[in-house]
Amino acid sequence: MNRNIILLIATIALWICSCVEPFNLNIKSTLRLLTVEATLTDSSDEQTISITESVNSFGKVVAFPVLKVSAELEVNGTTRIPFIEKGLGKYALPATFRAKPGNTYKLIFTKADGTKYESSEDKMFTVPEIINVHDKFVFNGIERSFGYEHANYVYLDTKDPVEEKNSYVWSWQLWERQDVCFTCEGGRYFDTPRPSGCKTERGYEGITYDYYCDGNCWEMFFSQELNVFTDIYTNGNPINNRLIAKIPYYNSSGALIEIKQQSVSPSAYQYLKLLAEQVQNNGSLVDTPPAALVGNVRNVSNPQEIVAGFFMVTGVRYVKYWIDRKDPIAQKLTPTGLRDHSIREEPMSDIPGRPPLTPCILSPSRTPFKPKGWRD
């Protein structure tokens, strides 16, 4: 198999599938790949890395956690800080750790079988504050396979520092009010017997019912594209009207978006830029990519081993912004909704409690807890 294709598969496996979830690829191979997901920041959040081994077996990639790893963070080539194993292939630095601009960092770890790995040094750069965020409603702003969707384009302004060369990565998280917490196909929702949930029933084949939430619920969406930029030609100048997100007109009640601005090293920028070009612009996974996606982590004794992922240290700034959706409301446009169909309610009946309200179950993409900054 072409080495470039192997590296592209490894990087996509890291980017899309960092948990034990299979996804289909039209390539057959039994290659095992070590994958390192390691981005440390200057935020107060727990700083963790993830080490997994990915197996591509007949078109399906599955990642398994690598356990009992001895890992350290080397600071400025001298001080070493040990990681603490948290389980499931995750390793954390002490809660007091804070990355600092100007410092250099290197990841060093040894697997249980004695194989030693290390990254190249990555320097942390200063990240400026986000000065302003604004949005613009765009009619038919997002092209889909089935047509167009109206959208709010979200932009930001920031001031690039003049003292050093900087590279940036932007991402976002969106909260939308969710009214339907369960959708049942081929049956109905029942609270009892336990466990509660959708129960398949004879006579309901081909029928779909949606059930309203019993209390507050928010759906969470995350950016799916890499948005990178370097100031090589604009050093020290303002960065104005940078397009960060295109948010579909899901509903008229407004939405909350949190924008994350990161400053990364030149080597991290080059890696992310190449990843963005190959993952977002390539026509097919089986096409030979223009360049190999080589990360900065290597096997000390066997440099020929392919290691997926990139170790980087970044400065981070966050800002939340409320999307009010006044424009589409004024134009009397119909929201697309959060489902791929209009709400289909179970008909009312004489049976007490039918149809039932359903719980908002906490998950990586849904929460019953009101996000800070949400406007009622």
Describe the structure in your own words.
It holds the Pfam family DUF4249. With 376 residues, this protein is mainly beta. The protein has helices at residues 3-16, 266-281, 326-330; strands at residues 23-24, 32-41, 48-57, 60-65, 70-75, 79-82, 84-87, 90-92, 104-110, 116-119, 122-123, 130-144, 147-159, 167-177, 180-185, 187-190, 197-200, 208-212, 218-222, 227-230, 238-248, 255-264, 297-299, 307-323, 366-367. It has 3 helices and 25 strands. The strands form 5 sheets. Strands 1, 2, 3, 4, 7, 8, 14, 19, 20, 22, 24 and 25 form a 12-stranded mixed sheet that branches. A hairpin with a 6-residue loop joins strand 16 (187-190) and strand 17. The protein starts with a helix and ends in a 9-residue tail after the last strand.
What keywords describe this structure?
376 residues, twelve-stranded mixed β-sheet, mainly beta, DUF4249 domain-containing protein, DUF4249, 3 helices, six-stranded antiparallel β-sheet, 45% strand, 9% helix
Low-confidence stretches: 1-28, 283-291
Helix-and-strand structural type: mainly beta
Beta-strand proportion: 35-45%
End-to-end distance: 55 Å
What oligomeric arrangement do these chains adopt?
Answer: single chain
Following the backbone from N to C, one meets helices and strands in this order, namely HEEEEEEEEEEEEEEEEEEEEEEHEEHE
Rough outline: globular
Secondary structure: helix percent = under 10%
Number of strands: 25
* Mean pLDDT across residues: 88
Count of separate DSSP helical elements: 3
How is the biggest beta sheet arranged?
Answer: 12 strands, mixed
Rg from alpha-carbon coordinates: 24 Å
